[in-house]
Amino acid sequence: MSELPVWADWVISFFIVLGASFAFIGSLGLLRLPDFMARLHAPTKNTTLGVGGIIIGSILYFSITDALSLHELLIAIFLFLTAPISAHLLAKAGLHLELKLTEQTQDLRKKPEQYSDRDD
Amino acid sequence: MTKLIPAPWWSIFLLVFWLLLQNKVSVGVTVLGVILAVIIPLYTLRAREYRTTLHHPLLALQYFFILLGDIIVSNFNIAAIILRPRKSIQPALIEYPLDITGTVPITVLASTISLTPGTISAELGRDGRSILIHGLNVSDPDATVRQIKQRYERRLKEIFQC
Question: Which residues form the domain of B40?
Answer without folding.
Answer: 8-47
